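Lab manual, section 2.4: Encoding a predicted structure.

Procedure: take the sequence of the chain (314 residues), apply the prediction step described in section 2.3, and record the output as structure tokens. A sample record is shown.
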Amino acid sequence: MAWRDGFSRLRPDVAIDFPAPHGPPQGALDPQLAAFLDGRLDFAFLTREIAEADLMRFRRTHRGALPVVVPVAGGSWNRFGFVDPVVVIVHETNPLRAIDLRRLDGIFSSTRLRGGADIIDWGAAGARDWRGKPIHIVGGDAWAGEESARALFMRRQVLSLPGNRGHWRIVSGSGDEADNVERVARDPLAIGFTGFGHVLPGTRALAIIPRPGSKPVAPTREAIASRRYPFARTVDLLLARGADGCIDPMLAAFASFIIGPEGQRIVTRQGVFLPLTRDQAMASRRLIAGDRANRSLDSTNMAIAMGTASGRRP
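Recorded output:
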């Protein structure tokens, strides 16, 4: 609401409506996200990766076009349920401290698009003292159907490459993501992933090596705020282009306010999410500017209906 109020002070001629309900997102079942995808609302906030099913639904009602996805805030650091970063977790007795993307792909993927070997024991994963000890994947029973927000994020960040979709290694009997942290805490040979705010005693988050030869990056607050940690997430604003292929000028103005200095100060003051980095803000501005070039922002008395899929937002 603070974003709405701050923008309204600058542009009192623009009416922004936040229709109920304001609950947390439930994927495709969320009524506000569904309304945006179906073209009945002008924009939506989303606190997860936009799913392929969402994109297909949007394209059916927007002549094959795709929505514009604009990051407007970083996720949280370690707050439970507030777009916290995804972390790979092992048992606290596991000697492994860091892992690279190729090895993660070798553990979790059946396609191994990153070119690594099929990894089924801890020695091959980098824990030399545990050669021959099998890796127990947890949470995999859920990946054969509709992916969770975290699984979708990990598939895109680790298993997939541009133009190539990776596929999960499906391990029957590995449970789902509802209790995967508890499973890791009970099993010294287990590995899984979760949100940083969900980590429990008895488990430990691994540092991630984002590129060959680079140093491991642990999920510290600084690393997440600066985006050095590769599995930090964002709060995104979804916008639709008009028939002319451009974002509506008023929507562009509102988005520019959010990612601008005052909008990001609101994020900082509320202390739930992290503000965008300078590079993130510049990238978001380019997304918006590319669609509003040569368009006037002098429209008056425009009412904007906004639906949200986040429920927890600045």
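Check your result against the sample. The chain has ten helices and eleven strands.
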